[in-house]
Amino acid sequence: MAFHKKLAIKTTVQFISVAVIFEVGYILLNLLFLIIMGATNLDRTKVFQEFKPFMIPIMVVVSIVGCGYISYRFMLRPLEHLDEVTEAAKKLAQPTDAPIILSSNLKSIEDDLNKVREQTLQNLRGAQLADQRKDDLLVYLAHDLKTPLTSVLGYLKLIEDEPEIPTELVCKYTGIARKKAQRLEELINEFFEITRFSTHKLSLEEVPTNLSRMLMQITYEFNPILTEKGLEWDLQIAENVEILCDADKLERAIDNLIRNAVNYSYSNTKIFFSLTKTNDSVRICVQNKGPTIPPDKLERIFEQFYRLDASRSSDTGGAGLGLAIAKEIVELHQGTISAYSEDENIQFVIQLPIHSQKIVRS
């Protein structure tokens, strides 16, 4: 029951108690008068007339004492408890690890306040960690942007300063500059992703989509990258699977999973990619051979700005938004995404309903 309701009930009880005390006092005084009359041979009328002036003062004194006790018991003590709770609530503005302690009869309120305190501390730590990741991200991206840009400018400068440079060397330098420029483009796109992701305003434009055809197209476009990395596909895509989805956004989610698999695969291995269908859902699986992800990192793998690659190589990896964005998109489709890793196998599994309702997350 809410504290103010308890206080209202106790106040009502107080007023009823005052009336009861007054009535009881009156009855007791009358009984006392009758006892005195029974124990003496005095004229009752005369004694009553003499005793009557003292009855009201005695009743008033009894009522005052009774009201004083009841006021303390039912009014002052609850107000003291209210002050105690108010002071404890003020501590929630700047919570500490020290638990809030209240009177024994306020145990339920104490437990609720400590739950709020712990949740507030958890939220503060999460916000601080997110801010730290963003700060680190800006530092990392600034460094990563500078590295390929320096290479591009350096190789172009070599070509400019050496007019008689052999054609083969020009091709080599321009090829390196092109790769570095592509890397630079990827990192710049990361900045746009950060801005878009931070707005938290993603909506779906769902249309009937042949998922089988879309996934075959996506995997086909990755063939040059897989060849360059010494990787191969192991495709098991069911035919003619159709679902209602936002094809562009879902394609982005799948693209992010494949890129993650490519970046963290051992050379000369296969990437398993499958699509299966049940009565009311589809299952997409991306699995690769690579270093086993420790459980503590696996739990955080879908967090914003989190990267498995602690070395922050300028050649691979992004801002740590790819998997977080994939999770956001899948959940917008009312689906789920899970990650598993053991025995040097990394697997991501997406479950999507065939038909979903359009929702907007803000």
For the record, the count of structural domains works out to 3
CATH topology name of the largest domain:
Heat Shock Protein 90
Strands across the major sheet, in which order?
3-5-6-8-7
Strand content: 5-15%
What's the number of extended β-strand segments? Answer: 9
Q: Biggest β-sheet, characterized?
A: 5 strands, mixed
Q: Mean pLDDT score, rounded?
A: 77
Shape: elongated
Question: CATH H level of the largest domain: which superfamily?
Answer: Histidine kinase-like ATPase, C-terminal domain
Broad structural category: alpha+beta
Report on this structure:
By secondary structure, the chain is α+β, with helices and mostly antiparallel strands. The protein folds into 3 domains: 3-94; 126-199, Signal transduction histidine kinase, dimerisation/phosphotransfer (DHp) domain (Helix Hairpins, Orthogonal Bundle), CATH 1.10.287; 204-361, Heat Shock Protein 90 (2-Layer Sandwich). The protein contains 9 helices and 9 strands. It has a 5-stranded mixed sheet with strand order 3-5-6-8-7. The chain has a two-stranded antiparallel ribbon with strand order 1-9. A two-stranded antiparallel ribbon has the order 2-4. A hairpin with a 3-residue loop joins strand 5 and strand 6 (281-289). The two termini are 35 Å apart.
